[in-house]
Structure formats: C-alpha cells, structure tokens
Task: structure prediction
Amino acid sequence: MIDRLMGKRPRLVASHEDSRAMVTESLEFLASVKNYNHWMARTLAPFVGERVLELGCGTGNVLEFFLLRERLFGIDLDPNMVDYCRERFRAHTNCRFACADVLAEEVALDFTPDTVVSLNVLEHVEDDRSLLRWKFERLDRGGRLVALVPAHPAIYGELDAAAGHHRRYTKSELVAKVEGAGLRVTQCFYFNAVGFFGWGLNARLLRRRELPTQQALFYDNHVVPLQSWLEGIVRPPFGQSLIVVGQK
Result:
C-alpha cells in the first residue's frame, strides 16, 4: 500500500504542480512509516556496498540505514528534498547531496560508486532504458544496480496515474531492460505481497488518487512486522514491488 511517488521524463519529477505537491507530501509521509522503511533497508542491505549513489533520495528515509557505509551520495530533482537531506545528515561527513536531473545535466561525483540504488524511480521516467544506461555507466566494474519498482500492470490505477507512473513492471520486462543496459541480473524477486492487494483495492477498484494515510499507518504498525518476518523466510510469488539486482 505504500509507494514512493516521484515524477516523469523529461524531468525526473513531474512538471505539473499537483503532481509535485503529491510527490513532496508522499515523501514526507514515507519518512514516518518506520517499519516499512526498515524492512526495505534490511532487504536491500546484502546487495549494497560501501560507495553508494542513490538516485531519487527524497528525504533519505532509506539512506539513513546505510550511514555506516564509506561514502553516500544522494541525488534528487527537488531542491527541498536535497536541502532537507543536507540538514538532516549534516553531522555525517561521508554524505553528500546534489539537486539535478541526471538525464539533462552532468553531476560531478567525487568517487566511483560500487552500488547505485534506485527506489521507485524508473516507473516515472518515460525513457527508462536511458536512465538504466546512465546508472550502468557510473558503476565501478563489478558494481551493482539495486532497484525497486512497482510490479504487476494489472493493478495499475488512479494512484499510479496521479503520481505520474508510466508503467508497472512485469518481471520479464524489468529483467530484459536491466540486461539491455549491460548489466547481468543476479536477483529479481517480488516484495510486499500484502501491498499488492492494498494497491489494487485503492488504485484499481476504488479509483483513489491519494494515498489513504490512516490505512497505510495501520499497515505499517500492525502488518509489516509479521509480513517482513514471513517474507524473510519465503519470498512471495507476487508483490506490490519488484526488486532487481544487476551487476556490471
């Protein structure tokens, strides 16, 4: 039920003011769903190295779990998000942030990342293949792309459209696009099985265009602790999201 809302191509965040407002509101809300954020970070942690670039860092709600890594660099198109992260992580000298649309301008990195993290970003970019290639080109040899995207086109609905989602991915489409960028896919699996039903209900059947805040908070507080434990034992055959790991 919880989804990170970014923007679309040619900018990585939607140009329409209502979509931008929804993006900012959603990112601020996501900073409060601690159980979900911790679960996502634990799931990603085995694939995240020491020199990390996160594209679409938002409020740093996942980046905060990797503060002990050697280097962290977060990029976001929204200057408010970047300013927030700079203030939030000002005591951590291993963290840097930049405001940029990476498909339209150069970003100066002072290290070569061994991991590029991208959480709920690709679906907002019309030319997702170009963005995947951008990530490939910045990775060190042997480095990993770690991406989370919305799954199952069948549950695409009003929430997706309102957030500027161009698509929800099938596993075969995601693998093909990551491999097409030059990466070798080592992992691709579903994440958040309960969220599949919640998203389908809200976005597809009820045709909601806003996140149901109280429902999501209930889910975070009462469902995620058990669900995260279960999915840590057995990966589900479907889910709200797909996680893919590609190695250069």
Summary: Helices lie at 17-30, 34-44, 79-88, 128-138, 158-163, 171-180, 193-205, 213-233. The radius of gyration is 17 Å. The domain at 17-247 is CATH 3.40.50.150 (Rossmann fold). The chain has one domain: 17-247.
